[in-house]
Specification:
Layout lengths: L2 E6 L6 E7 L2 E9 L3 H13 L5 E5 L5 H11 L3 E4 L2 H11 L6 H14 L5 E2 L8 H27 L5 H6 L5 H10 L2 H20 L5 H18 L6 H36 L13 H11 L8 H8 L3 E6 L2 E7 L5 H14 L4 H12 L4 H22 L15 H11 L4 H24 L22
Parallel strand pairs: 1-4, 4-5
Antiparallel strand pairs: 1-2, 2-3, 5-6, 7-8
Helix pairs in contact: 3-4, 5-10, 5-11, 7-8, 7-10, 8-9, 10-11, 11-13, 12-15, 13-15, 14-15
Length: 464
């Protein structure tokens, strides 16, 4: 006898649960919170109903579901998850015009009968896993720092181009330390070359010396000449630049600390460094793949892992017609981003992947589309290695094991794509799109707006 407990998880409000037996509702709308006392009472009610073999069905709602899943798993219940998109579609079928927590919990309790293929066995700790959580946090901080750099670029542009010639555009620690204190050109001139040199030597560990100090003083004088005596309030501009530079320094320190933690967690999660053995996969990408995929055995097949990345195309098939459009983008976006980057590097090392890239590009495929195709191949191989517990072996197209240096040499000699070839493919696609757009425009009604210049015919009044 199958007992199913469907729980509509709430973040701040009370959860609602429905108990079903073989698809028949026993009771519905039981409210409880994530408190030990409430959970014990709910568990006791299940045994009063003789529900000895219980399957708990939840939706992964933010991080609130993970605590419930762990609690019920420790009590011996089988915990399964359902993707929110699938449950939303089934909810429309079950109750089209009404959506509330009670209906959601009842739908989840009936899901093992309505759609058993959509259930995912709960394994691991999900967002509670430190490596999975930390690689996501690192990605967020990297994007925040990139945004800070963009704002810093816009502010330094107000000082003039001479500052870039000295500080560079990559904003190392020495440049950020300088901008956090001396972004005002008047302050730079008053500081003098001697004191500025000592500051730069200390902050750059000797890489920047008197020549950089002299260049900054020249840049400061040039800025004053560009703006004139009353053209800019440099004190306020310097404060704005200092705020952005301090944020960049803080984020850089945080990212460095996270990198150390990620390295230690990855060493524990993948002691044989199986993921890192794949071509194009460095320390950061290997940690992301290991953290976001987790246990590869939790997926029913390799196709399920490819679908989880969101790199597989959408398929629309009817009869003899089959159309594959853009990728689904369903799944983990960070994993998809890292796999794309890894595949773009792997095609320069692995001859088998490089040969496939050349074949795809010869068939007039776009570069991004080809890389997405290679990324699905790469993640399939990595997942296979993880399941088998064996490292990735680089091979030639005939199956002969080779080294990374040999792979790069083979790719460069046999499978190099000429830049002109890629440009021709891109231009051809642009021409095809223009033709298609022109064809659609010709089919529009006469009153529709057009991109072509209007033709003004003379009227009979003005005709000669």
């Amino acid at each position: 006898m199958a007992w199913t407990l469907g729980i509509d998880v709430a973040v701040r409000a009370a959860h609602q649960a429905t108990l079903a037996r073989d698809g028949t509702t026993v009771w519905r709308g039981r409210k409880f919170s994530t408190r030990p006392a409430d959970l014990e009472r709910l568990w006791a009610d299940l045994f009063l109903a003789d529900a000895t073999d219980v399957t708990v069905v939840v939706e992964p709602t933010r991080n609130a579901w993970i605590v419930l899943a762990e609690w019920f798993r420790r009590r011996g219940a089988r915990v399964v998850m359902v993707p929110t998109t699938q449950s939303a579609d089934l909810r429309k079928y079950y109750s089209k015009h009404t959506k509330n927590d009670r209906i959601d919990s009842e739908l989840l309790a009936r899901l093992p009968l309505l759609h058993p293929e959509g259930l995912r066995e709960y394994s691991g700790q999900g967002p509670a896993d430190p490596l999975r959580r930390l690689v996501r946090q690192r990605s967020t901080m990297i994007k925040r720092r990139v945004a800070v750099y963009s704002r810093l670029d816009a502010l330094v542009e107000l000082l003039g181009p001479a500052w870039y010639a000295v500080l560079g555009s990559n904003y190392g620690n020495a440049a950020l330390e300088f901008l956090a204190r001396y972004a005002d050109p008047n302050t730079v001139i008053r500081l003098g070359q001697g004191r500025l040199s000592r500051f730069l030597i200390a902050r750059s560990r000797g890489a920047w010396r008197e020549d950089h100090a002299a260049g900054l003083i020249v840049a400061a004088k040039e800025t004053l000449m560009l703006w004139g005596p009353d053209g800019m309030n440099f004190a306020e501009l310097g404060d704005d630049i200092a705020h952005e530079a301090e944020q960049a320094l803080f984020l850089t320190r945080q990212i460095k600390q996270i990198d150390e933690r990620v390295a230690n967690l990855y060493a524990d999660a993948d002691p044989k460094a199986i993921v890192a053995s794949a071509p194009g996969v460095g320390p950061v990408i290997s940690a992301v793949i290991a953290g976001r995929i987790g246990d590869p055995h939790r997926f029913t097949s390799l196709a399920a892992i490819r679908a989880y990345t969101g790199l597989v195309p959408k398929v629309s098939q009817s009869g003899l017609s089959k159309v594959e459009s853009s990728i689904t983008k369903a799944g983990d976006p960070l994993l998809r981003e890292m796999l794309y980057t890894a595949a773009d590097q792997a095609r320069k090392i692995d001859p088998q992947i490089a040969a496939k890239y050349q074949r795809l590009m010869t068939g007039d495929r776009h570069h991004d589309s080809a890389i997405c195709h290679l990324a699905t191949l790469l993640v399939t191989r990595i997942a296979t290695c993880m399941r088998n517990g064996q490292p990735y072996v680089l091979r030639d197209v005939d199956g002969t094991p080779i080294t990374d240096a040999q792979g790069r040499k083979i790719v460069k000699e046999r499978y190099q794509i000429q830049p002109r070839r890629r440009d021709n493919i891109r231009h051809q696609r642009m021409r095809d799109r223009r033709k298609q757009a022109a064809g659609q425009e010709s089919q529009e009604s006469p009153s529709a707006p057009t991109s072509r210049p209007a033709k003004h015919e003379p009227t009979s009044q003005h005709a000669v």
